[in-house]
Amino acid sequence: MTPVRWPRPATLGDPHTRLLVVEASAGTGKTYFLEHKVVDLLLATDATIDRIVVVTYTEKATAELRARIRRLLTQMVWGAPPATAGEDGWLLDDGARARLRDALDRVDAAPISTIHGFCQRVLSDEAFAAGRAFEQQAVPDEAALRAAFLDALRERFAVEPEDKARLRDFLASGKSTEALFAWVLQLYRFDAPLAETSPAPHQALVARVLGEVVARADRSKRRGGQIDFHDMLRLTARALEADPALAARIATRLPWALIDEFQDTDPVQWQIASRIWRQPPARGLTIVGDPKQAIYSFRGGDVHTYLAAKQELVAAGAGLATLDVCQRSTAPLVAAINRVLARPRSLFHGSGITDSAPVRATGEVTAAWADGRPLAPIALYDVGSAGPAPEVRHAIYEATADEIARLVGDPAHRIVGTARGRTHTVGPGDIYVLTRTNEESRAVAAAIRGRGVPCAFLLAEHLFATPEAADVADLLDAVAHPRDRGKQMRAWMTCFFDVPPDALIKAKDAPDDHPLVAHFHDWRGAAARMDYPRLFRSILDDTRVMERALATGGGARAVTNLGHVFEQLYAEIERSRCELPELVTRLRAWIADMGDRPDDSDVQRQETDQHAVQVMTVHRAKGLEAWVVFVVGGIGFTAKSDDIAVIHDAAGKRVAVLKGSDVPVGATGHEDQRLAYVALTRARARVYLPVLPPKTKQPKPRGGWLAVYGAMHDALTDLHATGRSARAPAAGAARCRAT
Length: 739
Known about the structure:
Elements: E1 4-6, E2 19-24, H1 30-44, E3 52-56, H2 59-78, E4 90-92, H3 94-105, E5 112-114, H4 115-125, H5 127-130, E6 137-138, H6 141-157, H7 161-172, H8 177-190, H9 203-224, E7 226-227, H10 229-242, H11 244-253, E8 256-259, H12 267-277, E9 284-289, H13 303-315, E10 319-323, E11 325-326, H14 331-341, E12 360-361, E13 365-369, E14 378-382, H15 389-409, E15 415-419, E16 422-425, E17 431-435, H16 438-449, E18 455-458, H17 467-480, H18 485-492, H19 501-508, H20 515-528, H21 532-543, H22 545-551, H23 556-576, H24 580-592, E19 613-617, H25 618-621, E20 626-631, E21 644-648, E22 654-658, H26 670-680, E23 683-691, H27 705-723, E24 733-735
Parallel strand pairs: 2-9, 2-10, 3-5, 3-8, 6-7, 8-9, 11-12, 14-23, 14-24, 17-19, 17-20, 18-19, 20-23
Antiparallel strand pairs: 1-4, 13-15, 15-16, 21-22
Helix pairs in contact: 1-2, 2-3, 4-10, 6-9, 8-9, 10-11, 10-12, 14-27, 15-16, 17-18, 17-24, 20-21, 22-23
C-alpha cells in the first residue's frame, strides 16, 4: 500500500524519553493523549502492545481506554488518514501497518488494568518471590478482618488483664464492639500509622486491636490462599522490597508504563511504580494527572504523594509536559473560568496547588441562543434575601428547577451548541445539576420533576447495600438449595415473587409441581450446567419482576439495580468460574462489606437511560461533561467529623488521627477547593450559579466548602460587573432572575 501520513499530537514529545510527567487540566484530553502515546511507542520504538502497561483508576475506565485504543488502531490500519496530517505525522508504510495490525489482534490481551489488577497479576506471576500460593481467591477485606477480630476479642482482649481493662473502659464509654471493628477496618484501609500526638481516648486499645487483628487475618488468608484488595498493593510492595531482582524481572517483561489519574495515587502505589519503572531495565514511565482534581482522599487518594512524586521525577531528569488546550468547552466559558481561577484569592489558596497554566479553547465548540444571540458562559441567578440555610437551599432548588424548565420548554430560551461540526439543541439529557450530598440531589430532583421535566440522579450509595441485592442473594440461595423450604419461603418474600406474609403459610406445603416451587427446580438445572446467562434471564422473565416494578411506579431504580447486580455476578462467574453456592457466599460477603471497593462497581448506576436532567454529587461528576451545568450544592453544608482522618504531620508524613487527638497539621478545606474546580469545569457551554444572600456567602474562618463557595462567588460577582463593560464581553456573566 502507498505510505500515508497520520497526524501525531505534538504533546507526545520524544517517544524515547524515559521519565515523563504530564499535567492535564479538565477537558484537555488525557485519554486522547494516552491512546496516542501507546501508538507512538508501537511505531517509534520496539514496543509491542503486550509490553506496555496502562494503569487507570477504575474497571469502567479500563474498559473505555481499551475500547478507545482498539478504535484508534482500527482507524489507522483500515481507515483513511485525516486531512490534517502533515509532515510531522506518523508515516504509515507497510511495516508500520503490520505493527499496528499485530497490536490490534492482541489488544484484548494487553496489560490495561487498574493498579489492583496489575498487582494481582504480579502476585500470580511471581508467586515464589511473593511467597504466595499459585491460586489465590479474592475476598472482601471486611470478611477476613471480622473473623480475626472476633477471635481476638475472645482469645485475648476478653482474657488478658491489661487488654480486658481497656476494652471494659471502651464499652463503658457507650461505644460498642461494632464501633471498634469499624475503626479497625477503616485504619486498615487507610494504611496510615496512628499519629504520635496527644492521644485520643481509647487510642491505645485501637492500636493494639488493629495490630492483633491484621496479624491474625494475614495468617488466615495465607493459609487459605486468599487475598483482599488491600493485600494486592501491600504484598506487591513488600515483595519488591524483599527481592530487588523482582522489579528488574517485571520491567524486563513490561518495560513501558503509562499511569492515568495519578493525582489519586497513594504512597504504596507510588512505591510500586517507582521501584519497577524509575530505572533500567525499564524503558519508560509516564504519569498523567491533574492535582486540581484530586478528590478521592476518602478512598485513600493522596495528592501530597502526587506532588512529591512529580518533584522526585523532575529532579531525576523527567520531562514535564502540560496539556493546555481544552477540547470540552466554548472559548467564552474557558476564558471565564480562567479569570475565576486567576484571582489573587484563588480557589486553591494554601493548598500547594496552583493553576499556573491557564488553558485555551480549540474553538471547535460553540454555543448560542436559538435565535443567534450570544450566550454568556456563566449565569448568576438571585435566590432572594438572607435566611436560614434550609430556606436558602429551598430557594436555590426552586430557582434551578424554574430555569431548567425554561431551558427545555420555552423555544425562545433554547441553547444550540456545535461541537466538532455537529449542531445540537440542548435538551434535558444535556443538563447536569451538581450537588454536595445525596440529600441535596433528592431535593433538587423532586423540584425539577415537579415542573414536569424528566430527571434522574446517580447515587453514590453502595449497590450491594440495596434491597435488590439482598433479594437476589435470597433467591439464588433458594435456587442453590431447591429442597430447603425455609430458603424458598425467604425467596417468596423477595421482590421477585412478592408473596404477602399471610399467604406464606399456604405456600409452605405446596407440592413440587406448584409453579412457586417448580421454578426453583427449573432454575437449578441451568445453574448445574453453569449456564448462568440463561439462569439470570429466566429468573427475570419467569417472575416478571421488572414489569411489576415499572408498573407500580417509581420502579426505575429497582430495575436498574437488579440488572446491575446480575451483571456484577456474571463478571464474577467469568473471572472465577465458581458454582452457585459459592457465588451466593460471595454476594453475601459483598453485602456485608459496607466499605468502598477500589473501583466504581459497587456504586448504583443512573436509574434511567432516557433523555433526562441528570442530578449527581460533584464526586460522581468527575470525568463527565454536559452542555449546561448547574452548581447548586453545599450551602450550609458542614462536613461530618469523621472518627478517623488522614492528614500530613509537620514532617509531611501521612498519619491517621482519631477524634479527640491533637491534630498537628490540618488541611480541612483543600479537597473542597478541588471539588469546586471539578464542578466549574464540567460544562461545555454554560455554568449556572446562584447569587447567595450577603450573610450566607461569607466564608467561615475555618475554611471548608462554604469558604470555597465564598471565594468563587466573589470572583463571579466581579465577573458579572465586568460583563457589563464592553472591555471584556467574552468573559462576562449573565444574570437571570428565577421566579
